[in-house]
Amino acid sequence: MVDVVAFMGGTFDPIHNGHLRTALEIRQLLGNDEIRLIPCHVPVHRGLPGSTSEQRLQMAELAVAEEPGLVVDDRELISPQANYSIHTLQSLRSQIGEQTSLCMVMGMDSYLTLPSWHRWQEFLDYAHLLVVQRPGWKFSNGDPMQSWTEQHLVDDIDLIRKRPCGHVLLYQLTPLGISATQVRDLVGANQSPRYLIPDPVWNYIREQGLYRNN
Ligand code: ATP
User: CA 28, CA 42: separation in Å to the nearest integer?
Assistant: First the structure.
């Protein structure tokens, strides 16, 4: 059987246990070898992050160092062009060929903003979307995303594995209401974010003096 390629993009400013646990549970759900974490260079949909691209990359690498099922992929950081997700999807698809299943993993909060993403309606031509429920985020009444979702929704993970692209799967994992904003705010308030992020990431934040002026 051909392995599924799955990735989770994000700012990872900083990477936290919500990202890591989500990626690990998705890996187990798909039964594949690894999930790629792809930090974005210049966030297209949000303000500037509180750390440099290099620091976010280093924190992500520290976070997965002891977990062989998670790998950091720096393709967006080394790309000279503005990195829209559509380009990442095209780049991954050209690497893995037409037949392999490609899964883009995202939290419900990101999924709800999809209509503002560049060329988002083409995403399903390249990949499946695996959407992870996130505490506090759901469709609001009459959200057009809900009817778009229903047109593409499947609940059979085997379809996701067998077909290369084209479906949306909504999935409930262990709900962890952790956000990078919360971590930055805690550090800025001189409080500990311990157990929300891996210890090596917390050590790095202290060494580099990150997020103090949040
Ligand atoms: P911020 O608080 O700075 O907005 P964030 O915690 O949402 O950051 P991102 O790097 O923006 O982190 O998120 C990357 C991806 O991970 C997104 O698809 C997001 O929905 C998902 N994600 C983040 N935190 C969680 C969580 N606790 N549970 C599930 N998915 C999450």
Answer: 30
Q: For residue 85, which of 24, 167, 7 has the smallest C-alpha distance?
A: 7
Q: Is the CB of 19 under 6 A from ligand 1?
A: yes
CA angle 86, 88, 160 (to 5 degrees): 85
Q: How far apart are CA 2 and CA 25, in angstroms?
A: 20
Tell me the per-residue pLDDT of 155-196, one tens digit each, with 9 for 90 and over: 999 999 999 999 999 999 988 999 999 999 999 999 999 999
Nearest CA to ligand 1 atom 31: 107
Domain boundaries, the chain: 4-208
Q: How far apart are CA 14 and CA 58, in angstroms?
A: 10
The alpha carbon of 16 and the centre of ligand 1 are apart by a number of angstroms equal to 9
Q: Are 116 and 45 in contact (CB under 8 A)?
A: yes
Residue 2 has pLDDT above 80, yes or no: no
Give the per-residue pLDDT at 104: 98
- pLDDT classification of 48: cutoffs 50, 70, 90: low
Mean pLDDT over the full length of the chain: 92
What whole-number distance in Å separates Cα of residue 194 and Cα of residue 179?
13
Please state, in angstroms and rounded to a whole number, the distance separating the CA atoms of residues 158 and 175.
Answer: 23
Distance, CA 207 to ligand 1 centroid (Å)?
24
CATH topology of domain 4-208: Rossmann fold (3.40.50)
C-beta 110 within 6 A of ligand 1: yes
